[in-house]
Records
---
Amino acid sequence: MAQEEEIPVVLLHGWGGSFQHTWHGPGIDALLQDSGRMVVGIDLLGHGSAEKPHSPEAYENLGEWLLEAIPKEFPVVDIVGFSLGALTVLDALLASPHRFRKVLLAGIGNGVFDNKSSQRHQRIVDALEGVGSVDDTFSQMFVQYAHQPGNDPIALTAIMKRPASRAITPTDLSHLAHEVLVVIGDNDFAAPADALASAFAHGSLCILKNTDHFATTESFSFIDALLDFLTHA
């Protein structure tokens, strides 16, 4: 196995974000580099500098897309995924576990074991398509994110409408030998995450106090947990 400083850290943002906004803006990439870690930033399909297809089917296999996007010169990486990025990491981890060492999953919880589209998910899609209630502050927040500068609202809506993936089970995760840290805010709509963390053979859970989903990656507690996880053997 390569020395830790030779294994890069891949940072993967969530829906409506980008490497620049989620990781570079708060200085998380710089903090990792200052600690001696190499950082690889990737913009998810449909985001940032990546291609932005408008077909939901284009986003059906984001895990496979991620495996292709990680530079081939790095056969093993540590990886951090937030929200949609964490779901993508989880799919890639199950498909090719040998490509990863340490894994940090933020902003996802026990809902990963249920791949059925929720009423909340449909509210978001309706809002993005302009047929949702303007009084639904939760779904309207996604509309605001979709229209941030540099974002493509049609592509982001297509991601929300992508075909459902195969359901993940705790047994699927129990076979993985990776060190996995699950981080979630106590006010995150994706909480709780205890069953997710405990499904991994070497999983642990970090709960961020007084933190909602959208504030996760800018939380000092999150940044501390990330640095501690990735800069200590």
Note: The longest strand covers residues 100-106.
---
Amino acid sequence: MKFKILDLLLPRETKFYDYLIEQVDILIEGCHIFKNFALKIESLTDDEIKKVIADIKSCEKKGDIVEVKIINELDKTFITPFDREDIHSMAINLDRSLDILNSMCNKIDIYSIKRLPKNVNNFAELALEISARLRILLT
């Protein structure tokens, strides 16, 4: 690797990788909870369903906190490890994924759904696999 004087004078902030990994880890946690929920919904009691929905909501709130942290750090950082618009877009879309999981769980609760189509199970598995691969890409 070639030494560049510009890298010495203007170091890049690497904290964004840590923040994005933190947000992906929250997404993985939410996807894992949702996958288990989708597989077992028929055998869960109403109280257990409420607990799962609360767990997903907790993941969504944690994701919101990390998203705000990323955006605030972008505003304070002069040189980012990669394009700031890309970092912003990743943070927004990772949070949007958590928002979708939360919204799906809320609708399941509102409409008192006790049986999910097989497509939802496939979606849950795919979402978990994609988030796990995204985690690998960021490390």
Note: The mean pLDDT is 91.
